[in-house]
Amino acid sequence: MLGFKSFASASSIIAGIELVNMIRKGQFRPELRPFQQFCQLAA
Predict the structure, then answer these.
(1) Is 17 helix (H, G, I), strand (E, B) or coil?
(2) Looking at the domain assignment, is residue 15 inside a domain?
(3) How far is the C-alpha of 3 from the C-alpha of 17, rounded, in Å?
(4) Per residue of the chain (43 residues), what is the pLDDT tens digit?
């Protein structure tokens, strides 16, 4: 892999990977926005 061109693209790709993992594990709650879910997980 050649790497990411910018921090923004790396950040969005990692966030997408984490979201897919959460959906697969059944942790995704569609009634909350992704940032709200993150805040609840981080708290």
Answers:
(1) helix
(2) yes
(3) 16
(4) 567 788 888 877 887 788 778 778 877 767 777 677 777 766 5
